[in-house]
Each structure stands twice: as C-alpha cells, then as structure tokens.
Design goal:
Blueprint (H helix, E strand, L loop, with lengths): L1 E5 L4 H13 L2 E6 L7 E5 L4 E2 L1 H4 L4 E4 L12 H24 L6 E7 L10 E2 L9 H11 L2 H5 L3 E7 L1 E3 L4 H11 L12 E2 L1 E3 H12 L6 E5 L5 E2 H12 L9 H8 L1 H8 L3 E2 L2 H6 L8 H8 L3
Parallel strand pairs: 1-2, 1-5, 2-3, 5-6, 6-8, 7-14, 8-12, 9-11
Antiparallel strand pairs: 3-4, 10-13
Helix pairs in contact: 1-7, 3-4, 8-12, 9-10
C-alpha cells in the first residue's frame, strides 16, 4: 500500500513509518517544507496541499497536531491546539473528497479527551462527548472529517489514550521523579487513566488499515484502564522504587493550570470495544507486564 502519513516525525508517526516500511508498504510523509522524493507538501494554515499527489495514495494516516502536554494552556496555546487539528484535518478530508477516485481510507487521530471527565463510568465508542476544552476540541477535530465520510471515504477517528513509551510522552516525563523515589498519585488517585503502549498504538493503526468493517470512532486504548493511584504503585514496583509522595490536586492546578485539571485530574475510563470485537490481539493488555517490558525488567 502507498500510505500518506502526517505527523510522521512525532512519537507515533515515526514508529508507524518504521513498522509500515518493515511490512513492505510505501510511506509518503506530509511535510510543510519543499517536498522531496517520498514526500507531499502541505501547509494547513494556508490551505495548501498537493492534491494530485494525495489522489495517488491508497490511504492517509493523519497524526499531526500541536502537542497538548507542552507548556501551559494560555489562550494562544489553546487556539493553536484546536486550529492545528481542525485546519489540517479539514484540509485532508476536503482534498480526499475532491479527488477522483478518492483514496478509500482516512485514519485520523483523535483522543480519549473526547469523553471528558466521567468518573468511573465505562466509555465505549457510542458514548456522547463530554465537557471541557479537550472534549470540545476533539469533537471539532472529528467533525472535520465529515466531508470525507460524505464522499464515501472510509474514515476512522482513532481516539487514542495515554501512550506509554520511553521515547517520549507521559511515561518518559513521569519516569525520572519515580526513579528518584519522588513519585506518587496525583490528587485523590481515584481518577482513571486509559493507557496503551506505543507498540499497540502502531499495531492497532496497521490493523485498522486492513479492517474494512471498522469506521467512525475507534478507541485505541488497552483493555484494562487503571486508577492513577494504581498506575503510580505499579510503576514504582516495576522500577523498584517507593511511590508514596502524592501531588495534591491544588498543586497540580497551581503548577499546570487548566492543563493539569484536564490531563492529570480528570477521570476517563475507556475500553477498546470495537478493536476487541474485531479481533485485535493486544501485545500489552495488562499494565505491569507492559511497564516491565518497556523498562527491560
């Protein structure tokens, strides 16, 4: 397959490109500079894209977007988070809808932030969107693919959970304080954390490329979400360090503002109902074996 990938230099995109090439697929990167061989130029902010090149693809995996966990959520930062997702997604969707014949697939990233903070309620794909900045951003992000759906493109909105990897993301940031014996739960620790390893994110994306029956929202998370307190204890055990220094909720709000409330204190208990029903086999379904594998223990 000839697969276009946006965000190919990010944590998930880079790993996905490697996996696809290993499988014998041709990876075409969407880039914002002058395109070289094996690349397609695009500029979402200006609505520019090489539509002819996009029309020659078999599928597009769209992963690009402003990093939500880097820096405080100022008004300008929040605007960049939304615009980087909605503008880019709409541009790709409109381009796919306009070319003839349209490429059959668009796998577009979304996030479990779609559901908002819902306590211990289990979220499957039919659940309604939640409240808050991230929920609204994710809703608009997914709606930006509608034009491609209406044109007959198979669209999958991948609601990705907290990605665990030593290369970057949440685990890479959490690991140093835990290694120093300074780790612990955040707030009450009762809030749910829906996680997935990087290997399974990539595995799920490859699986979705070949499962024509799957479309619309798909939760890309491991089947066993855990509480924040359980995650802290499990990570402590995996590295052989205590994990008894909690971060009070007030401290999380003071240090990180709105981002701390939505990323650290919100509770989103998500299960991969569609992936599981379709037969995807998770490499890491349980947290402790996953962490020990990632940490080489």
């Amino acid at each position: 397959m000839k697969i276009g990938v946006s965000g190919a230099s990010g944590l998930v995109g880079e790993a996905l490109a490697v996996r696809l090439k290993e499988r014998g697929d041709e990876v075409i990167r969407l880039v914002r500079r002058s395109a070289r061989r094996g690349e397609i130029f695009w500029n979402p902010a200006e609505g520019e894209i090489d539509a002819e090149a996009v029309g020659k693809l078999d599928a597009v995996v769209h992963l690009a977007g402003e990093n939500i966990a880097h820096g405080r959520w100022t008004a300008a930062k929040k605007q960049r988070i939304v615009e980087s997702r909605v503008q880019g997604t709409r541009l790709i969707a409109e381009t796919l809808a306009a070319v003839s014949p349209a490429p059959p697939m668009l796998l577009s990233a979304s996030a479990i932030g779609f559901y908002g903070s819902r306590g211990d309620e289990v979220m499957e794909e039919p659940a309604s969107p939640g409240e808050g900045f991230l929920a609204d951003a994710c809703r608009r992000w997914e709606e930006a693919t509608d034009v491609a759906k209406q044109a007959g493109v198979r669209v999958v909105n991948m609601r990705i959970g907290v990605v665990l990897s030593l290369r970057g993301g949440a685990l890479a940031k959490m690991l140093p304080p835990f290694q120093w014996g300074l780790g612990g739960k955040v707030g009450t620790g009762r809030q749910y954390m829906s996680w997935i390893t990087l290997n399974d994110v990539v595995g799920a994306i490859v699986y979705l490329l070949h499962q024509s029956s799957l479309q619309g929202p798909v939760n890309v998370v491991a089947p066993n979400p855990v509480s924040n307190a359980e995650f802290a204890k499990t990570l402590g055990r995996a590295i052989g360090r205590p994990a008894f220094l909690p971060m009070p909720a007030a401290a999380a709000k003071l240090l990180f503002g709105e981002m701390g409330e939505e990323l650290l204190l919100s509770s989103t208990r998500v299960t991969p109902q569609k992936l599981t029903a379709a037969g995807y086999q998770f490499q890491h379904a349980e947290l402790e074996p996953a962490l020990r594998d990632l940490l080489g223990r």
